[in-house]
UniProtKB/TrEMBL annotation:
It holds the Pfam family Beta_helix. This is Right-handed parallel beta-helix repeat-containing protein. Gene3D superfamilies: Single-stranded right-handed beta-helix, Pectin lyase-like (2.160.20.10). Residues 323-343 are annotated as: Disordered.
């Protein structure tokens, strides 16, 4: 079957083109502003713009009838691009900006194969790019900023087979959030100016699917200058969570996560935080999760942070640490033999 290709120009309906073209379509958006949101509900669809900053989706009158709402949000919360529906998969959203929506910039739910590439998700109220209960997830070369919760988030994807690479995330509560998702590769991202640069969290919520964060790789990321304050004010940044500030990377209740060759530097809290260092390993057992077990922390450079470079609240006999550089931490007195040495 031939792929149906359609071009949409400013002033025309993206939703009409998606619905008319059906499964397997390639919808190209010319440069310009599109005051509308869209719902991709067919498999094999590619929605592509002329580039971030050139093709811009923004709030307007065009809201698709019957579009599923953002998870755990009221119906009046609107996302820019929603990918949701039975047997929806192999969908691509690429080369555009999505800004100013009251929900997520890009929201995918129960999708078997979703790629978000070269998307600028800017000032969307809740999430930037939010992939939930999906598999085959790719987020590549995106910029995500100005969201109350995560810039890029992978949530309850137990077999994500995810690749999150080359993204820049800033001015969010969580720069990059791996929430109860496993099998993710998080490679060469830049997270700065958030409350926490990167959080991998195993925590079971009432009424949610089974949790867990297992068998992930976090490699070659730059996590710096994360100093916003989240979770301290009702209705503020990261309001649903505990207070967090000044954290580069945290592994909470994770199993078999490898943290390799990351640069975690110059993170300083501006407010209260339940985490006391730039790099944290901790348990989530009291929230229905588990202890942090069998993680590998190798060849990371963790320097210039306050109040501490690292805080290892885990059984160190159940972790593998080697070749890490850090000046000050808890527990104190670790040596090169323990996998930690000063500069």
């Amino acid at each position: 079957m031939m792929t149906r290709e359609m071009t949409v120009r400013p002033g025309e309906s993206i939703q009409r083109a998606l619905d008319e073209a059906g499964p397997g379509a390639r919808i190209s958006l010319e440069a310009g502003r599109y005051p509308q949101s869209v719902w991709i509900r067919h498999a094999g669809v590619t929605l592509t713009g002329a580039g971030p900053g050139r093709t811009v989706l923004e709030p307007g009158a065009g809201i698709p009838a019957g579009v599923p709402p953002l998870h755990d949000a009221t119906a009046d919360v609107v996302s820019g691009v929603t990918v949701h529906g039975e047997r929806v998969g192999d969908v691509r959203v690429e080369s555009l900006s999505v800004r100013g929506f009251s929900g997520a910039g890009v929201y995918a739910h129960t999708v078997a194969g979703v790629t978000v590439r070269e998307v600028a998700a800017e000032d969307n109220a809740v999430w930037g790019v939010y992939l939930r209960e999906s598999s085959g997830c790719v987020v590549r070369d995106c910029r995500a900023s100005g969201s109350q919760y995560g810039g890029v988030a992978l949530s309850f994807c137990p077999r994500s087979d995810a690749l999150i690479t080359g993204n820049e995330s800033f001015a969010n509560a969580f720069g990059l959030f791996v929430d109860n998702s496993s099998g993710a590769r998080v490679v060469r991202n830049s997270c700065h100016g958030n409350a926490i640069g990167m959080l991998l969290l195993n925590q079971v919520y009432e009424g949610e699917p089974e949790g867990g964060v297992r068998d992930c790789l976090v490699i070659g990321n730059d996590l710096r200058a994360n100093g916003l304050a989240a979770g301290a004010e009702p209705g503020g940044l990261g309001a649903a969570g505990p207070p967090i500030s000044g954290v580069g990377l945290a592994l909470i209740g994770t199993h078999r996560v490898s943290v390799v060759d990351n640069r975690i530097h110059d993170n300083h809290p501006s407010g209260e935080s339940v985490m006391g260092a730039a790099f944290v390993i901790g348990s989530s057992k009291e929230w229905g999760g588990d202890d942090a077990l069998d993680n590998h922390v190798l060849w990371n450079r963790i320097t210039g942070n306050s109040p501490l470079d690292f805080q290892l609240g885990a059984d160190l006999t159940r972790q593998v640490c080697a070749g890490n550089v850090a000046d000050k931490g808890d527990p104190p007195g670790l040596t090169a033999a323990d996998g930690w040495r000063p500069r």
